[in-house]
Structure formats: C-alpha cells, structure tokens
Amino acid sequence: MKTIKQLNKKTRKPASPAKRGEQKSKKINKPKVAIVGLTCCEGCEFAILDLGEKFLELAKRIDLVHWRFIKDDPEKIGPYDICFVEGSAVTKDNVRLLKKLRKNSGQLIVLGNCAHFGGIHRMKNWVGRYKALGEVYEEPEGIDNLDILPISEIVKVDFTIPTCPINGEEFLDIVLQILAGKKPQIRQNPVCLECQASGYECLLQKGEICCGPVILGGCNAVCLKSKQACWGCRGLLEEPDVDKFVKNCFLTGHSAAAVKKVLEVFGVKDDWINQAQKEWRGGKTETGLVKVKRAINRAGKS
Ligand code: SF4
Ligand code: SF4
Ligand code: SF4
C-alpha cells in the first residue's frame, strides 16, 4: 500500500473536467459536499462534529448536501464536488456505494484509519476470513465476507486524512486549504517529534513496543499523552527505517509475534512487510531485517 505522501501526491482528474477541473486549481466557492460512512464506528464523523462552532463556521462555506447526521437522502448519490468517505468496504453494498460515490464526486477524500488501511476490520484478513466469520455467526452462509482493502485499492482516492479517529483540527485545516484551491500537505515528521516536544516519557526506552520512530506524526502524540504506546494508526513515514526499529524490538526481548500483534491492530502490517522487503532488496541484508521479514511472514500465516 502507498504511504500518505504517495496517496496524496496526485489528484485524480475530475469527474466533469470542464467544470470541476477549474475548481481544483482555484478557490472553490460553496462546493457541494457529502460525508458518507461505510462500515465503521463513526468516530471520525464525531471528530468533525466535535469541532463545534468551528464546524458551524465551516458549514457556512460549503453546501453540505448529504450527511446522515444532518441530512440523509440515500436514494440520491451526487453529484458532489467533494465527498468524504469514512470506514471500510466490508460488504458488497459498501463496494457498490463506494464506486457510485467515486463516479459522482469531483474529489473523493478518505477519513481515518479504516478507510486508509482497512483498520481494525483488516485483522479479519490475517486471522482468516472464514475463521473470523465462524467466530461471529453460527450460520455464516449468505453473509458477505470480502477481503478488507484500503479504499485506495478499490477506487481512486484524491486525498487521505489519517488517524483513528481523525484529528478534527487537521481535518479543518485540510478542508480550508482545499477550499482555498491549494493542494494540502501533511508534514513527514515522526510521532516521536511531537511526543518529545510535549515532554512525554519514552515508552520505547522503557522496553515497550512503541512505533513512534517510524510512524507519521500529526496526531500530537495523543496516545503517549495517556502513556499508551503508538501502534501506528497514521501509517508509516515516507522513508522509515523499519529494520533498525524491529532490531531494537528484538534487542529489548520482544518476539516477532509480539511485533506482528501490534502491527495488525491498525492494519499497518502489510506496509511494514513491504517496506522490509524493499530495504532488503535495496541491499540491506542485516540479520535483523531478514529475520523480521521471515518471522512476520511466518507469523502472518499461522
Ligand atoms: S478510523 Fe477509527 S474512529 Fe474512524 S471510523 Fe475507523 S475505527 Fe472509527
Ligand atoms: S514514547 Fe514512542 S513516540 Fe514517544 S519518543 Fe518514545 S518511541 Fe517515540
Ligand atoms: S500516537 Fe500513534 S497510534 Fe496514537 S494517534 Fe498517533 S499515530 Fe495513531
């Protein structure tokens, strides 16, 4: 899967080039906006609501034509200038809806870890789709049981706003940049930078698995504030040193299975393995990397 920077590098050609193509490079006045949730906990949508008065100010600058919290017309899909999508495509109906939204939206922007990586739903892929279904349903026949994919692997995505849940202030900042006709950027700093700037205790140094050194910052290290290690919900940095990080985990006594468990929570495991393989092919043949690549792959199949 692509990193945030790669995902956010190119913008898709608009659905209606003559009209929406101009809007993408210029200030967008009163765009028609939809916020749609697929399968998810709706936490990212609540993060938008939690903006309170700031959200009401934003609402004056857009034409919010569809949001189930406020206005819901499930029969009508689009056209939208901007469509925000939260959640994962867990069912065939989710996939159909997603494709319709893509077709009828100038820009499709995904919100949160579920849409970005498949999030918690993606654990099903690693447990085994059928095994997972059997854990929940006594009679699983007829239940949709798709592989969980990042939204960007199902339809073209114009921009990704990461985190579980999204940071309302970051959402606001990105939307205001889009309305001003700019291409938003997310800075490539690790979570550690914000963690240490806030004076939080380093859990990695205490021997915990904390992915902060290789994970994209921007969440203000919110988990570390509560003494909870970073499990990577914002995804990998552009050029993470996965090898070094995992070797440190091994040196402090953690097993590949323990690392794998952490990486599966928010769905970053596949990215992690891809990065390890890339570094390996790129000439880094250190024992730690080879070991983790094999160990995580093996643990993934168990
Ligand atoms: S990313 Fe997190 S908060 Fe947002 S919908 Fe998924 S589980 Fe909920
Ligand atoms: S606690 Fe985690 S995020 Fe904070 S400095 Fe240590 S490794 Fe980095
Ligand atoms: S600290 Fe890590 S897990 Fe927590 S919100 Fe930030 S990126 Fe996500």
Rounded mean pLDDT is: 86
The number of E-state strands comes to 5
Return the CATH topology of the largest domain. Answer: Rossmann fold
Bound molecules: iron/sulfur cluster
Largest sheet: 5 strands, parallel
Tally of contiguous helical segments = 15
Strand content: 5-15%
CATH superfamily of the largest domain: NADH:ubiquinone oxidoreductase-like, 20kDa subunit
Query: What distance lies between the first and last C-alpha atoms, to the nearest angstrom?
Result: 22 Å
Specify the helix fraction band: 40-55%
Based on secondary structure, the structural category is alpha/beta
Q: Any idea what the shape is?
A: globular
Keywords: Oxidoreductase
Domain NADH:ubiquinone oxidoreductase-like 20kDa subunit: 41-177
Protein name: NADH:ubiquinone oxidoreductase-like 20kDa subunit domain-containing protein
Pfam families: Oxidored_q6 (PF01058)
Give the helices and strands, then pairings.
Elements: H1 4-7, H2 17-25, E1 32-37, H3 43-49, H4 53-61, E2 63-67, E3 80-86, H5 92-103, E4 105-111, H6 112-117, H7 123-127, H8 129-136, E5 159-161, H9 168-179, H10 191-197, H11 222-225, H12 242-251, H13 256-265, H14 269-281, H15 287-301
Parallel strand pairs: 1-2, 1-3, 3-4, 4-5
Domain NADH:ubiquinone oxidoreductase-like 20kDa subunit: 41-177
Keywords: Oxidoreductase
GO molecular function, one term: oxidoreductase activity
